[in-house]
Amino acid sequence: MVRTPDHNNAGEHSSPDDGEEFTALFADMRGSTGIVEFVERHHGLNAAAELFQVFLSECVRLVEDIDGAEVHLRGDGVLILFSGADRVQDAVEYTRRLRHMVDDPPDELVRHLRCGCTTCPVCGEETSLSLEVRCGIDAGRVSRFKVQTLRDTVEELVGSCISVAAKLSGALGEAHRVGMSRRAWRRLHQENGTDARLDREWTPSAGQIGQRRRRFFAS
Predict the structure, then answer these.
(1) Any residues with CB less than 8 A from the CB of 60 and at least 6 apart, and which?
(2) Which one has a higher pLDDT value, 169 or 100?
(3) How many other β-carbons are positioned within 10 Å of the β-carbon of residue 190?
(4) Which SUPFAM superfamilies match (predicted)?
(5) C-alpha to C-alpha distance for 97 and 200, rounded to whole angstroms
(6) Mean pLDDT (the chain, rounded)
(7) Angle at which helices 87-103 and 182-192 pack, to 10 degrees?
(8) Distance CA 19, CA 194 (A)
(9) Residue 166: which of 59, 3, 28 has the closest Cα?
(10) Rama region for 208: left / alpha / beta (φ>0; ψ in -120 to 50; rest)
(11) Is the pLDDT confidence value at 8 over 60?
(12) Is 10 helix (H, G, I), strand (E, B) or coil?
């Protein structure tokens, strides 16, 4: 877990029974199963490990200067909890940074996405693989609990906003899309006030989120 200091809300704590108020953002690599299979087959397991190490490191780096952000690694993605006064705006800003990184990625992140060996049918050809991400944003309370594993004690998180953010990410069929729940949308309007740009950037949408069909906003 990586945590940045919250200079605006220092000293503020919610009741342990109520949990803490956050904006949850989940971002993951789209098509990661196919990517890791391709890279492992053509370049080796260490190359696949390097790709995910660089991707996750970049995801963490992008949030380092945002106050009150807490990063948890989740497989091929990241869960980020924002707690600042403008926490939904912070989440939206993070998605812009992530998209910019993906559009102009460091070479070590994408150099294994094409084959350059001499023993396989796709040698030297462009592949259909590309680096793509999806994000989901929700707002709500999060509670913490500890679980004893075989080696140590780990902290886990629970809250519907975490689950909904992850489901929103998975519900977006297109790459480089961001889904935002209606409660995060309302919070964003509270932070921004009346801003016509929000209605231009975010469009109403709907999809199957968990067991329910939900309305949300997509950008």
Answers:
(1) 2, 71, 78
(2) 100
(3) 10
(4) Nucleotide cyclase
(5) 19
(6) 83
(7) 100
(8) 30
(9) 28
(10) beta
(11) no
(12) coil
Give the whole-angstrom CA distance, residue 111 versus residue 106: 9
What's the pTM value of the predicted model, to 2 decimals?
0.83
Beta-sheet pairing, 133-148 with 178-181? parallel
Q: Distance of CA 18 to CAs 43, 61, 138, 143, Å?
A: 48, 31, 17, 8
Average pLDDT (185-192) is 88
Contacts of 51 (CB under 8 A, 6+ apart): 35, 36, 39, 109, 112
Torsion sign over Cα 203, 204, 208, 211:
positive
CB 180 within 8 A of CB 170: no
What gap in Å lies between CA 203 and CA 178, rounded to an integer?
11
Q: Is 55 exposed, middle or buried (0-12, 13-18, 19+ CB in 10 A)?
A: buried
Q: What Cα–Cα distance (Å) separates residue 218 from each residue in 58, 105, 182, 207, 215?
A: 24, 24, 10, 11, 10
The answer to whether 62 touches 14, Cβ cutoff 8 Å, is no
The two three-digit tokens of residue 164, written as one number:
């909904």
CA distance 92 to 89: 5
Task: From 29, 132, 27, select the one nearest 80 (Cα to Cα).
Answer: 27
pLDDT above 90: residue 66: yes
Residue 45 CB neighbour total at 10 angstroms: 11
Give 116's pLDDT tier (boundaries 50, 70, 90): low
- Which tokens go with 67? 């106050």
